[in-house]
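Tip: read the tokens left to right.
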């Protein structure tokens, strides 16, 4: 673990000096986390048309272009910077495809503006239930999914976002607080509150509660 940490620190130092090769290595190390981010936040209307891997490829080109500016003044920790650039690319993809769909179809197509695309309740519930794979539990999946979606829909959007950031994007409480613009204490409280609301539904699905159990620190 110590060697891995030292290696990551060295790569981050090289990124800070504008080393694109080091950027590629670090981006590759975080690729699965970033792909999960894209899958969760990609609008469901685009999921058959847009490949998360293509989104990441475009985002990497953005990162390479932005690297000199980041190297000269790294205003964010490395991973949060990478995450921000990926989210910005995802927003552009949403606008390109959904605005075009609205024009072509001549109808209203809603598009979240003013912030990063948020994972909806259906996507979060699918991720949670996707971790329960036993055939013996298959019969309760549909019912539990409805319950999960209803519970998630009733939550404050920021509370839902804390669950996504902490469990699926694997951010620390400090990182989640930074992304949400909250104090560390406020982010932790929202996380605890959100998990308490899910507790009953999770407890009724064997094996599911264990997959999302975690502290608020």
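Filled-in amino acids:
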């Amino acid at each position: 673990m110590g060697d891995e940490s030292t290696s990551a620190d060295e790569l981050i130092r090289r990124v800070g000096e504008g080393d694109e090769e080091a950027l590629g290595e670090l981006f590759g190390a975080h690729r699965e986390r970033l792909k999960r981010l894209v899958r969760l936040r990609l609008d469901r209307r685009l999921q058959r048309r847009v490949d998360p891997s293509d989104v990441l490829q475009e985002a990497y080109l953005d990162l390479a272009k932005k690297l000199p500016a980041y190297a000269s003044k790294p205003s964010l920790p490395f991973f949060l910077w990478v995450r921000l650039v990926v989210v910005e690319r995802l927003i552009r993809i949403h606008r390109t495809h959904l605005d075009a769909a609205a024009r072509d179809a001549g109808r209203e197509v809603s598009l979240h503006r003013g912030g990063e695309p948020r994972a909806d309740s259906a996507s979060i519930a699918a991720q949670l239930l996707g971790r329960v794979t036993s055939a013996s539990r298959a019969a309760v999946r549909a019912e539990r999914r409805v319950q999960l979606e209803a519970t998630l829909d009733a939550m404050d959007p920021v509370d839902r976002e804390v669950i996504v950031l902490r469990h699926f994007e694997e951010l620390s409480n400090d990182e989640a607080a930074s992304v949400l613009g909250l104090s560390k204490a406020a982010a932790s409280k929202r996380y605890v509150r959100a998990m308490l609301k899910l507790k009953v539904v999770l407890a009724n699905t064997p094996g599911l509660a264990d997959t999302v159990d975690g502290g608020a620190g």
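The chain has two domains: 2-105, 121-212. Residues 101-114 have pLDDT under 50 and may be disordered.
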